[in-house]
Amino acid sequence: MSLALMGLCTFMCMACKNHSAQPQNDKSANVEAVEKKPQKAADVKTRVETIYKDVCDAYNSANQMELGEGMKMLQDKKFDETFCSEAWNKKLAEVVEKDNQNPGEMGFFDYDYWVMGQDFENLAVTDVKVVSFENDKAVVSLNLHNMGNTNPIKLKMVYERGDWFIDDFITSYEGEEDSLRADMDEYLAL
User: Fold this and answer.
1) 57 Cβ neighbours under 8 A, 6+ residues apart
2) Is the Cβ–Cβ distance between 86 and 95 less than 8 Å?
3) Partner of 130 at 20 to 30 A CA spacing, among 17, 50, 119, 144?
């Protein structure tokens, strides 16, 4: 064995003796530490900007593809699973289940809430602002531009799983706000 290799082995053994082994379960402690990391309003704003950059890029790319290919690419993105809260995804699954019980009918969604329309073109987001912020909850307003129209929306955000996730989409029409989560609750109660 070479002298350099023996020296390295000796160094590694001494280093190991000076450090106690950490339990394998340490990952959960790290996750907990991430979960409890203090957040700032700027963190929420950055997260929403990142989410909608991904969404806009994907939809604008899909618009350049053949219809079937573009729609499959968007489905594969799984925006809800990636960017929405666990509670949102649970509620969404309940809505989809109810829709599946009534084949041939329109179902709950008659538009795509990610683009606030049935069609999409030149999707962009501007004026992202944190309207309210408190610990693990926030409300963010933004303007969603689609097909030449500007749709002001608000997103209720929650901090979970170590990041910020969309918990509700709130639209405004003639001064009245409409919560998509509340609409889903009403639909499920029918």
Assistant:
1) none
2) no
3) 119
- The SS3 of residue 75 is helix
pLDDT at 144 over 90: yes
SS3 66: coil
Structure-block tokens of residue 16: 């190991």
For the chain, the maximum distance between any two Cα atoms, rounded to a whole number of angstroms, is 81
Q: Say which amino acid occupies 83.
A: F
SS (H, E, C) 76-118: HHCHHHHHECHHHHHHHHHHHHHHHCCCCCCCCCCCECCCCEC
The pLDDT tens digits for 89-139 are: 999 999 999 999 988 888 999 999 999 999 999 999 999 999 999 999 999
Please state the φ and ψ torsions of residue 183, each to the nearest 5 degrees.
-65, -40
Residue type present at position 107: G
Question: Does residue 136 contact residue 116 with C-beta atoms inside 8 Å?
Answer: no
Paired tokens of 84 = 């929405």
C-alpha–C-alpha distance, residues 101 and 45, integer Å: 38
